[in-house]
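Deviations from the work plan: none for this task. Representative record:
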Amino acid sequence: MEINKSYHSEKYEQKKDLQYFLKGIKNGNRFILSEAITLIESTNLEKRNLALKILKELPVLTHSTIRIGITGSPGVGKSTFLDTLGKMLTALGKKIAILAIDPSSRLTKGSILGDKTRMEQLSKDPNAFIRPTASGTLLGGVSAATREAVDLCEAAGFDVIFIETVGVGQSETEIVNLVDIFCLMILPGAGDEIQGIKRGITEMANLVIVNKADGDRKLQALETSKQYENAFKLLPSRLPGWKTKVLTCSGLTGDGLSDVWNNINEVINHAHKTSFFHHQRKKQREIWFDEISRNMIIQYYLEKQSSADYIVTLRSSVLKGELTFYEALLTLSDELKK
Amino acid sequence: MEINKSYHSEKYEQKKDLQYFLKGIKNGNRFILSEAITLIESTNLEKRNLALKILKELPVLTHSTIRIGITGSPGVGKSTFLDTLGKMLTALGKKIAILAIDPSSRLTKGSILGDKTRMEQLSKDPNAFIRPTASGTLLGGVSAATREAVDLCEAAGFDVIFIETVGVGQSETEIVNLVDIFCLMILPGAGDEIQGIKRGITEMANLVIVNKADGDRKLQALETSKQYENAFKLLPSRLPGWKTKVLTCSGLTGDGLSDVWNNINEVINHAHKTSFFHHQRKKQREIWFDEISRNMIIQYYLEKQSSADYIVTLRSSVLKGELTFYEALLTLSDELKK
């Protein structure tokens, strides 16, 4: 039996070390890429450390990449849009990755299946990689993990990276800090669905996409696009010297998708010409270094002191009103001094 | 000589202990209040701890308070506006505090004199307290310190707290998380000055104030207010069931200031009626508890390990390109493991 067991594990459990991951990623193996992202998301320090080692050893990119953020309330049709646009792009020879951050997936992880089903064509395309990313924890980390997942995808040869969010989570403003261009998707009409979006997100947009501009809603979509274009004239611009455009399209019929893709490229070209592209990526690296190192200090500290539970308990005492805000903070301070 | 020295220090250096601060704050002593805020802002752990003890012992408030955020680019006239509005409010029997966060003050601290001079009438008013707050450090903290300064001011009897910012700093979106109402100040015209404001700030506004609506600019101000009111209809609303209003006024002549003050009260009343006021303050406490406890862990950790310099060095190596992003993070991780 013992011999059998050992034989079994040798045969079926390949050693998943640094070389396994580096080789897999270099070969664009989507399964291994996905496994590496799971390491990134892990709260286990050993696994996190292996993830860092992988990231450190990734070869320098020889191809240019575009990172595109896309946000819209549930129901605006992001998945159908990405499914159709994605197929259009792979037909053009692009390799595309979609990282979907779904705050509802924290508990159920149910969206993994959901996303693949929702992007029916793309999920079968060998030049596409679709990956839902779990939402963050008390200690943060969702956006930092996404930042690292982007690096992995690019190293695996993907050149257009979409980061899809529903615009309601804590980490949305941080997502803006890891993309080159940020798109907001809305529906034709009064824009009621935008009321569900976290404040501050709207004016981050470099491009507003009025989706479902098909059939009866085509005229209404044009009207909506004019209204938003006027409104955006009054908001701060994310890209200096560039006015946010509002385009209409239909993810279902594919109408207007070429325009959207052309506009994305115009924004990127403008950003390259003005050096904003390079400057922004540099600035983003700085922001993420601070964010990730802060998270790391906290994670190591809590691990060493086994005080994670302690803080969670203090926090819930404050929320329940059993301790005042400053009673809890002073208690924490005394604990940290030990 | 020795005896003289001892006598000297006994006479002139009053012992500044917990009781000294609590008594001073209870009596509304503005000098001691200011000293206590300096303790809050200190990076010295002993002083921070005394500050926490003061905060913990503050009596439960018996008066209701309003916390008002006001942001606008330099030159829109925030100081003149606050000077005139402040005098109007103290004449109504209010006690007002103005906490001004000036990112330029980090190095020079020069704005302390500047602010007092700019609010000429108010700085002589015994029912007003004006305090510039230093900008944050690598380890954050400006907003957490401001959060605590608000509690001190309220305990000292101030009932209307203004937090003034210029809308360009890292901590602006956090400031939104410590006020009951957030006002954006702009100038009549094309709104060019809004382009300098950090993205995401505009749509946080519960109220937009078009200032300098006097003389020749009165008509233009009305036109501007209409444009912004239309734009805000399309943005997410910060206060459910409340459309952001755009009002014109002149801080110089005082024209329209009563309207502004009435509208602030309407927003607050609506928030009270819908329980949003209570809900928002509770949610804010939660956000700040996480923020402050995270900062505290990092501060204690760096203090104990004397590794603050180490991280600063790593960070600058990344920025200079001497280390890659992940080389630096892996080095930090190894250091933390020790």
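Chain A touches chain B through 60 residues (CB under 8 Å).
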